[in-house]
Amino acid sequence: MDFTLSPEVEETRLAIRKFVEERIMPLEEDPASYDDHENINLDLLKQIQSEARDRGLWCLSMPKERGGRGFDTVGMAACYEEMNRSIFGPVCFNAAAPDDGNMYVLNKVATDEQKEKWLQPIIDGKVRSSIVMTEPAPGAGSDPGGMMLTRAEKKGNDKWVVQGRKWFITGAGVADHFILLARTSDEPRRNLTAFLFHKDTPGWEIERRIPIMGPEEHGGHCELIFNGMEIPDENRLMGVGEGMKCVQIRLGTARLTHCMRWLGLAKRSLEIANEYISNRDAFGSKLSKRESVQLLLGDAAMDIEVGRLLTMKAAWALDQGSRARKEVSMAKVAVADVLFKAVDTAIQLNGARGYSKDTVLEWIYRYARQAKLVDGASEVHKMVLAGALKEDGMDFWSWGNPET
Fold first, then answer.
1. Is residue 402 predicted with pLDDT exceeding 90?
2. Which domains are seen in the chain, by residue range?
3. Residue 101 · residue 113 · CB < 8 Å
4. What's the pTM value of the predicted model, to 2 decimals?
């Protein structure tokens, strides 16, 4: 395994670090920078995005011919971590969920015509996007293949009619372009199909923006109703019955980009804690001199490094052409825990200051709780690992190249 960063990636990583420190992090201290849902307000976001684009820090994962930088997954990992040292960071570089994952899968599997119509506007920052999968019980959650209730029925030779309900659809409130997963048959393993639709397509609506612990991504987490929406067959993504394959292509990298970004937030949490304990006096000495404080900080710092190594191993495996299911699941479980532990430790070391809104720690703390749920709950990923252990035996810990 080789995690060596190319000169281009290293130069870009350092440029992102500088831009985040000088341009984005100071915005966190101004209440006027926030929208009503505790994220960067849209007018300010457009300004920062324009500056990031001018510096060549835009859409790192997308091909150069489409306006990106063409970085591999290892390069993305190093740079995305730097982006999310600010709570506002990833969206400023067009590297936030769900757009990042949607761009990835569209670039991988869409036709040339679909890329021009559905992908390029997202890359250009002209539209936002959303992926529509999860359903209220008894519908699809962690088991979309077995429990999907939303159906798309073929109408004639060139249309599909969609009926159903979805919820917790991230970004739906501001998205123009959507990827929808729906049941198209009851055939085992090939029962789902992916479709593309625009927000102005008749036959669907947002019933509500679901209130959450927050803070929220732009567009929130919404509940959608489909009542006879028609989608032309030309807007089908991949083949009929290949919806799960489409989702699996998207989710491997998308889950890992969460880990990359969470590591940035974890590091920022310890930065805030380290600065505070280095200057705070108590009982005749700096807090940083206390062994109990050192143990907390050192333990969290070590866990962040473990999470980074798991993330980089998974990134390397993906770059070798592997599906990296085992590696991504391990990173997803570990880094979700790392983020929560890092910010919890930082709040503890900051005392009442950490619990207040005088720092971004309470923002990160509330955000961190979702990490154990999004893109598969930690327990689901542990089941994946148990299945791999049963199948691979001692080869679960193989030193060889990852399986494709």
1. no
2. 7-123 (1.10.540.10), 129-239 (2.40.110.10), 244-397 (1.20.140.10)
3. no
4. 0.96
